[in-house]
Design goal:
By secondary structure, the protein is mainly alpha-helical. It contains 10 helices and no strands. The protein has helices at about 1-25, 30-40, 45-50, 55-75, 80-100, 100-110, 125-135, 145-165, 175-190, 210. The longest helix is centred in the N-terminal third of the chain and has 24 residues, at about 1-25.
Length: about 210
């Protein structure tokens, strides 16, 4: 029992160290020797638990997904209308990005390791189901199709991660990712065009000027 508990603690230390390194340097820029140094263990101790870098990356991606699913399970248990839940869910995802190295690593590794599941696979199905419910209950406009709003959510989440990775140190000029996403969601929900503004639908037919050219 003691040996088993020690093994669990060792694996936890290694996954945490790997998450920090993958988050900072990416898959190609991280080595087992680097992880072993951060964890304070020999290469032999690392490879005893994780024979390859790919095995460690798999474990980090699983951890990021597990943390995400646990947070969403708590969140979606709240009695909140579906559209509001989608907003709250994306804000929670942004918070996880800020707080959890395993989540940031899972996002990055999902991009950098072809053939592995993207982090968004942990939450996109929930978002789509909520938006289907929102549409059926009249919370979305008739032309705001759930598939299109799901794409909007993906863009907002990707933008939140890009903003987070672009922040440097503790510069006060940078607000939190959650605060910024909250403001962007406000714009998305209320719209940005003033009443009477000449806004042409980019998906509609070309204007007469465009046809003439």
């Amino acid at each position: 029992m003691v040996r088993q508990e020690r093994a669990v603690r060792t694996r936890r230390i290694l996954v945490d160290a790997a998450a920090a390194e993958f988050d900072r340097y990416g898959y190609d820029g991280t080595s087992l020797s680097r992880i072993s140094g951060v964890a304070g263990m020999s290469i032999g101790a690392v490879t005893f638990h994780f024979p390859s870098k790919a095995d460690l990356a798999d474990a980090v991606q699983r951890e990021g997904r597990t943390v995400t699913l646990a947070a969403l399970e708590l969140l979606t248990a709240q009695p909140v209308p579906p559209l509001r839940m989608v907003v709250d869910l994306t804000l929670e995802l942004a918070g996880l990005m800020e707080r959890e190295p395993a989540v940031r690593s899972a996002i990055r590794l999902g991009r950098e390791r072809p053939g592995t599941e993207a982090w968004s696979g942990a939450w996109l199905p929930t978002v789509r189901a909520l938006l289907d419910r929102a549409y059926e209950s009249g919370q979305l406009r008739a032309d705001a199709l759930p598939a299109d709003v799901t794409t909007l959510v993906e863009h907002l989440t990707n933008g939140a991660e890009a903003y987070l990775r672009g922040r440097t140190g503790s510069d006060p000029a940078f607000e939190s990712t959650v605060a910024q996403l909250k403001r962007v969601w406000h714009l998305a929900l209320v719209g940005v065009s003033a009443e009477g503004a000449d806004v042409r639908d980019p998906a509609g037919p070309p204007s007469e000027d465009a046809q003439a050219s």
